[in-house]
Design a protein that fits this description.
4-stranded mixed β-sheet; 7-stranded mixed β-sheet; 17 strands; about 425 residues; alpha/beta
Length: about 425
Amino acid sequence: MSIFEKLESEVRSYSRGWPVVFDRAVGSHLYAEDGTPYLDFFAGAGALNYGHNNPVLKKALLDYIGRDGVTHALDMFTVAKRDLLETLEANILRPRELDYKVIFPGPGGANAVEAALKLARKVTGKESVINFTNAFHGMTLGALSVTGNSMKRSGAGIPLVHATPMPYDQYFDGVYPDFLYFERLLDDSGSGLNEPAAVIVETVQGEGGINAAGFEWLRGLSDLCQRHNILLIVDDVQMGCGRTGPFFSFEDAGITPDMVCLSKSIGGYGLPLALTLIKPELDVWEPGEHNGTFRGINPAFVTAAEALRTYWSDDELEKSTRAKGERVGAALQSIAEAYPEHGLTAKGRGLARGIEFPNGEIAGRVCGAAFDRGLLMETSGPDSEVAKLLPPLTLSESEVDEGLEIIDASVKAVLGK
């Protein structure tokens, strides 16, 4: 361990909770260098929806590298990019009757968000963007300006401006009607609210504490944006690619965003890739106006296309994710109900799930106890009070059972039952 402590920055985080050196990974498991297995309910923070070293995706990647396929191509045309775009259109966009153009903004989710924010301001000529309480959209300055977490925001070192937070669904526990404050500010010429270019929202807030917006709330937000001529951006970086069941997390709400941000599992294999999907009429970029050296990582195009062919040519993965998600949700609800004196809450949708504890200290101890029993899961929420589960969508039923048993035992170990 000494070389990590000697040379790696203090900014490292996950390694502090999981103090082992990992060597191999297959499916739903990571293996330490001594061979100790860990069931992975973290999945690269949602970047590994199809598991570690998925054999189908690995074969496609190795075949491509083996034939000296192009690796780095900026935004040049390549066979791999063409295949990805054709597969995205055939397997995702056309079946859902979605008409989007594709921006390749750079390798990470923050790149996808930055492109969306920049384009929204260019299209509308307005500067202000509406975000929501407890939102997380990335660590670069634009994405950070629409992020809620005060600790992450403080790292910017400068004022984060041109963004206004509004209450997320159930922020006031249903005491006030949805969008009462937002709508009033928009309608009142004396409110001081700058006219927004866009609203950016996560349908399920991952880093914010597994807060799942209701479908009615999402439809209301979409309607509000249409009535006030505000662009709607859905950040589907963590919750897209099947995490909640359907490919896009907004599908069940029946809405069509103006822009969609994708990253993490869109690359399929864990390789860096981000896409910003935009309605065609919004494509007002000048050539090169938004770019990046690593916006053309062709091995990621290969694994992304193969993942779309393998898992999204039918609805089997969607059905499986919904069913497993219901199982996990019911089990977490039972755990929560077993400790009424602690006020635990089961949260989430699909295979984005969590248990909210009274504070971050307890949630951290539960995750620590799970690690001691061979399970990886992290905390989230403004005070790290939620034990968060993001297992691979491809995990087996027996792995679901194993993970739930470990979580149950870990909660018992910490809360004393």
